[in-house]
Amino acid sequence: MAEQDSLPMYIKKRPLDFDPNHILAYLDTLDKRSIDAEIAYDEAKDQVQEVFDYVVSEKQTNESVSVAQAKVKATNDERYKKVKKELSSRKKWHLVCKIEAKNAHSYCEALKQKSINELAISKLTKN
């Protein structure tokens, strides 16, 4: 029972038999979550670049340093480190969601094939 409790939610909620409506809703939920995670990741990438550019500009203006020196200082700036950490977190979530959706599609395809095989066997054994 403890092993079942540690399973990811997408596995706990998966359809156990071939019901097209349940499968459609299940895959739709996982696909939408994957898309949302990708959008959040893309937004974080944009934000990292924007913060970096802002900090570089700020360092150049306030400290009268070259672009190269400003870039070095910007990489050590806490604001930049914070958005980089957020980017890393969002990338991880994006990859998890993407893999879960891919695994769910594979699982449902196998479930469909299992249903087809069971139907074929039942037809063959009736004759």
Structure description:
14% of the residues are buried. The two termini are 42 Å apart. The chain has 5 helices and no strands. It has helices at residues 2-5, 9-12, 20-63, 67-75, 78-126. The protein has one domain. 87% of the residues lie in helices and 0% in strands. By secondary structure, the protein is mainly α. The mean pLDDT is 92. Helix 3 packs across helix 4 and helix 3 packs antiparallel against helix 5.
From the structure above, extract its key features.
mainly alpha, rod-shaped
Estimated structural class: mainly alpha
Helical run tally: 5
Number of domains: 1
* Residue fraction in strands: under 5%
- Sheet with the most strands, sense and barrel status: none
Got a strand count?
0
Which H/E pattern describes the elements?
HHHHH
Mean pLDDT: 92
The stretches of 5 or more residues where confidence is low (pLDDT under 50) are none
How large is the radius of gyration?
A: 24 Å
List the quaternary state of the chains: single chain
**Distance N to C terminus:** 42 Å
Percent in helix: over 70%
* Principal-axis shape: rod-shaped
SSE blueprint:
Blueprint: H1 2-5, H2 9-12, H3 20-63, H4 67-75, H5 78-126
